[in-house]
Amino acid sequence: MGDQPATIETRGLFDVIARRRSVRAFAGDPIDERRLRPVLEAANAAPSAGNLQAYEIYVIRGRERRAQLAEAALGQDFLATAPVVLAFCANPRRNRARYGDRGRELYAVQDATIACAFAMLAASALGLGSVWVGAFRDEEVRRILGAPPHERPVALLPLGVAAEAPERVPRRPLADLVHTL
Prior knowledge:
The chain has 7 helices and 4 strands. It is of the alpha+beta class. Helix 1 crosses helix 5, helix 2 packs antiparallel against helix 5 (96-125) and helix 3 (63-72) packs antiparallel against helix 6 (138-145).
């Protein structure tokens, strides 16, 4: 299987990855449940340590909360203009019994980030723009979400119809990035 050429199905995945851009300007179009649900289902399909899914996803639609998130995210105002923001929080209570400190400190964060990455790719496949936001004040985001103290905000993902078409940014060459041992 590893030596077989990409099929049409796998080619579609690589096309989605190649098309994905960090979008920070959104049209005012609302995101209905038919477009949001597949994004959430993709996040739910992400692999996780022990399949414990040690994360929570908050869907923020309200204008006031989106504006508060923009402020908590150090003035990243595009969060307020996206019709939907998904907040991914690590929930270490879901895996600490099985994995202890490593589950609490690492696996829960990994679970949340993988789920966010799956959501981002699904959004791109559906023609929605998004951008990963990791710069924010954790405590303030937790308060805005009404999340319990044990949850750790990991990423914010604004979603919407793109009002810009960002150029592809340069990436490191594989020769610089990959180390074969």
